[in-house]
Amino acid sequence: MALPLAVADALSGTEEGQAGVEEEVRRLVARELHDRVAQTLTGMLVEVENFKSEQVGWQDVVHQLDLIQVSTRQVLASIRQMLHDLRGEEGLGGTFVDAVRAAVARFEEKSNIAVRVEVKEGWPQALNTAASLNLYRIIEESLANIRMHSGARNVSIVLGPLSESELGLTVVDDGRGVDTDPERPPGMGTIGMRERAMFLGGQLQIEGKPGKGTTVSAVFPKALLVAEPSPLSQTIPLSEAKRK
User: Fold this and answer.
1) Helix crossing, 129-145 with 58-87: angle to 10°?
2) CATH T-level topology, domain 96-226
3) N or C end: fewer C-beta atoms under 10 angstroms in the chain?
């Protein structure tokens, strides 16, 4: 668990201090759940209830479902960010792009597969910690699949804006092509990549053609990748507070 720096500085490491830390964390979590989750869900319920009383056409139904989908993704991203903050998971160190380039260098050394990394103009200078970690893991898993299964000789990783409100990630190889038969159950790595994309409010697709390589592409709302961290993230570990 974690606590604000101001609270941690005031603690003496006593049992009373620890109880104070736990109480402050409970207040922080309650406030975050109210502001970032409960209010959004309440608004969704009100909108759905109002919509039920209206006479609408199919296009109106589709539009309303789109709005619900956006709100659901926002709630999911908020919960994911809170869980990340509470775990105190460490960041990558340095920038996201630097971490990707370092991972690519290690991959090339081990696999003898050439990788080109392209960062297009408009890609954010900094991502929030949850976005950096999950995007990094998606790329890492993609490279692992390429090394183990594709027989590829070249890989291209592209990071860039798709619009003013969306960011895109693609990993393309020239290998034998992944089997995308819907009847074939996806592997755990594929499921993990899709879940990580979903946690960031995005969508991930994998396309492949026999002998023509595989493309992993993902689209994310820009706002959820570069958003300011929540108050819970302005914290230090409880173990460190106890040492004060």
Assistant:
1) 100
2) Heat Shock Protein 90 (3.30.565)
3) C
